[in-house]
From TrEMBL:
One of its GO terms (cellular component) is tripartite ATP-independent periplasmic transporter complex. Na(+) binds at residue 210. This is ABC transporter substrate-binding protein. The keyword Ribosomal protein does not apply. It comes from the Bacteria. The keyword Mitochondrion does not apply.
C-alpha cells in the first residue's frame, strides 16, 4: 500500500480508538466494476478501497469487488447499483449519457479542463453539487473515482490527413466525443474493454481510442492500427464511484467516514499510477515498438472538431436547463483556472524546453 493510503488508514485507526462500539458492527458489501479485475490502473481504485476499509474497520467492513468477468454487465453498473444488486459500482459517468446527457460533465468533455482544473472544479467549485444533483434522480451517490489525465486520441489503421479520411470510418469512441465524430462522418460505436482488440483485429472497427500508452500498449492495438494520435477529446477522464443511497444511509457514521476518506485517497492514487505507467511506456515505445507512428491531427481537422464540439454542447444546452447550467459552470471555472495553468505549468514547461534547446 502506498504512502497516501497508509496515511488515511493511520488517521482512521486513531478515530477507531474513540469508537469501541464499532467492533460490534459487521457490514458486507459488493462492488461491481465496468473493467476486468486485472485491468489496472482502472481496476486499482476499487481494489485499494476494499483493502483500506477492511484495514480501517479492523476487518468489520468488507467490500467484495467483482469485475466484468463476474457480473457480465460492464455497461450496466448504474442500473445494478440503483437496483441494489450491488451496494457500490466503479465506472465512468459518460457511459450513461443515453439516460442523461448531463452525466458527460463528470467524466470529461472534448477541449475541456485538465485533471487538476477539473478536480478543483469538483472540490472547490460546483462540481460535486451538480454531480449529486444529477445522480439524485437515480437514488445513488456519485464520487470521483480516479483520473487518467489527458488521453490519447486513438489508434487508426490509416493516417488521418484531412476531414475526408474520417468519413465512413468505423470507430469505438464513447462520451460526447462520439457525437462530435459522428457529426464529422464517423460511424461511432461503444465497445467494452474486453472486446476492443478482437473488434479491431476482425475489422468490425477501423479505429479506437482507449486511454494512453501505459494501458494501450498492453492491449496490443499497435499491432493492427499503428497510427497513434495525440489527444483532444478526453483531457481529464474521471472514473466514478457509485453508491446505493439506501445502503449508504444504513452505514454507521464511522463507516461512512471511512468510505469517504478511502475514495478520495484511491482516486488520487490512480492518477499517479496511470501517469507513471504512461511515462514509462512512452519511453519504451521509441525502441521496443518502432512501428508506432505518433501523430497529431492536422489543424483543419482539429478546428472542425472544436467547432463540432461547441455545436453539440450548445445544442444540448438549448434543450436542457440543467445541462446548460453545468456547462456554464465548467466554462466559467475553466476560463479562470486556465489562466493559472498557463502561467504556472505551461510556462514552466515551455521555459525548460527552451533552455534545453539553447
Amino acid at each position: 500500500m502506498k504512502i497516501l493510503t497508509r496515511a488515511v488508514v493511520a488517521l482512521a485507526a486513531l478515530a477507531m480508538l474513540a469508537t469501541p462500539a464499532l467492533a460490534q458492527k459487521t457490514v458486507k458489501w459488493k462492488l461491481a466494476m465496468t473493467w476486468p479485475s486485472t485491468l489496472t490502473p482502472l481496476a486499482s481504485p476499487p481494489l485499494r478501497l476494499a483493502e483500506m476499509v477492511k484495514e480501517m474497520s479492523g476487518g468489520k467492513f468488507i467490500i467484495k469487488v467483482e469485475g466484468k468477468e463476474k457480473h457480465k454487465a460492464p455497461l450496466g453498473i448504474l442500473d445494478m447499483v440503483k437496483g441494489g444488486q450491488y451496494q457500490m459500482g466503479h465506472s465512468a459517468s459518460y457511459y450513461w449519457k443515453g439516460k442523461d446527457m448531463s452525466m458527460v460533465f463528470f467524466t470529461t468533455v472534448p477541449f475541456g479542463m485538465t485533471a487538476f482544473e477539473q478536480y478543483a472544479w469538483f472540490y472547490y467549485g460546483d462540481g460535486m453539487k451538480y454531480m449529486q444533483q444529477v445522480y439524485d434522480r437515480y437514488k445513488v451517490l456519485s464520487y470521483p473515482g480516479g483520473n487518467t489525465g489527458v488521453q490519447m486520441g486513438g489508434w487508426f489503421r490509416k493516417e488521418i490527413k484531412s476531414l475526408d479520411d474520417l468519413k465512413g470510418l468505423k470507430m469505438r469512441i464513447p462520451g460526447l466525443a462520439g457525437e462530435v465524430f459522428a457529426k464529422l462522418g464517423v460511424n461511432v460505436t461503444n465497445i467494452p474493454a474486453g472486446e476492443l482488440y478482437t473488434s479491431l483485429d476482425r475489422g468490425t472497427i477501423d479505429a479506437l481510442e482507449w486511454v494512453g500508452p501505459g494501458m494501450d500498449i498492453k492491449m496490443g492495438f499497435h499491432k493492427i492500427a499503428p497510427y497513434y494520435y495525440t489527444g483532444w477529446h478526453e483531457p481529464a477522464s474521471e472514473m466514478q464511484f457509485l453508491i446505493n443511497k439506501r445502503a449508504y444511509s444504513k452505514l454507521p457514521p464511522e463507516y461512512q467516514a471511512m468510505l469517504q476518506s478511502a475514495m478520495k485517497a484511491v482516486a488520487s492514487e490512480m492518477y499517479f499510477e496511470n501517469f507513471a505507467g504512461s511515462a514509462e511506456a512512452w519511453e519504451k515505445m521509441k525502441t521496443e515498438y518502432p512501428n508506432i507512428k505518433v501523430k497529431t491531427f492536422p489543424k483543419p481537422v482539429l478546428k472542425a472538431m472544436k467547432k463540432a464540439t461547441d455545436e453539440v454542447l450548445n445544442s444540448y444546452a438549448a434543450k436542457d436547463p440543467v445541462f446548460k447550467e453545468i456547462l456554464e459552470s465548467q466554462r466559467s471555472f475553466m476560463k479562470k483556472a486556465r489562466q493559472w495553468t498557463i502561467i504556472s505549468d505551461y510556462n514552466y514547461i515551455k521555459t525548460c524546453l527552451e533552455l534545453e534547446e539553447d
